[in-house]
TrEMBL record:
Protein name per Swiss-Prot or TrEMBL: proton-translocating NAD(P)(+) transhydrogenase
EC number(s) per entry: 7.1.1.1
Domain NAD(P) transhydrogenase alpha subunit C-terminal span(s) in chain numbering: 8-90
EC category: translocase
Free-text function comment from the UniProt entry: The transhydrogenation between NADH and NADP is coupled to respiration and ATP hydrolysis and functions as a proton pump across the membrane.
InterPro entries named among the record's database cross-references: NADP_transhyd_a_C
Organism: Larsenimonas rhizosphaerae
Keywords, alphabetical: Cell inner membrane, Cell membrane, Membrane, NAD, NADP, Translocase, Transmembrane, Transmembrane helix
Length: 100
């Protein structure tokens, strides 16, 4: 019981600190910050899978499955945003053809 309460306090503290850190990042830096931290999403996904593998009760399995689902969505979303950001910096090639 004590371990569960301590884990809940850690989760709440991590959520609060994460919100405070992200809310202070300027808008222009959100996409590069996300692309630079995609590896963290992978680590979170692996941790969620390990937690799901250690689950013993139905509630733990449900929470673990939701954690894996959200972590996978977060990782995929990060890569999609990064790909869109990189597309903005590619040259379209139209300028070379119009110059001739």
């Amino acid at each position: 019981m004590i371990e569960g309460v301590a884990a809940l306090y850690i989760l709440m503290l991590a959520a609060f600190v994460g919100f405070e850190v992200i809310s202070r990042v300027p808008v222009i830096l959100h996409t590069p910050l996300m692309s630079g931290s995609n590896f963290i999403h992978g680590i979170v996904l692996v941790g969620a899978m390990i937690a799901l593998g250690q689950a013993e009760t139905g509630l733990e399995m449900t929470i673990g499955f939701i954690a894996v689902l959200l972590a996978a969505g977060n990782a995929v979303g990060g890569y999609v945003v990064t790909e869109r950001m990189l597309e903005m910096f590619k040259s379209s090639g139209k300028g070379k053809e119009q110059g001739k």
